[in-house]
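Workshop exercise sheet. Pairs work together: one partner reads the sequence aloud, the other fills in the structure field after running the prediction. Swap roles for the next sheet.
Pair: D.N. / O.F.
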Amino acid sequence: MAGNCVALVSGGIDSPVAVARMLMQGWKIYPLHASQEPITGPNAENKTIALLRHLLQMDGPLGDAARENLSRELIVVPVAEQLALFTEKWNHTEYFIHMKRLFNAIATIRGAEVDATHVLTGENL
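Structure field:
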């Protein structure tokens, strides 16, 4: 059962591998990047773009699947200001929980725009 999927992509290796696996299953992928710039600088976003381009430029079945089913529109959502609130004393111990919930909420909103039934992260691996 393939369909539409919003993929939370970062500059790491897990999320592009998850995207590649779903592409090979025939899913239409809509990438979304939660930017933590200016805290982290532009490297994470640049690596994300490079990894998505790499998938599109590959030869063979994976490259074909990417060219057919990987959306060329990368949605970049700035989250640094909101994440900074999660580091306040009352909230610090649950930082990663709140961060993941925020990212999933953003992906769910994007999913409604593209009729996605799933949210994909590298953690799905």
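Discussion prompt: The two ends are 18 Å apart (CA to CA). What would you look at next?
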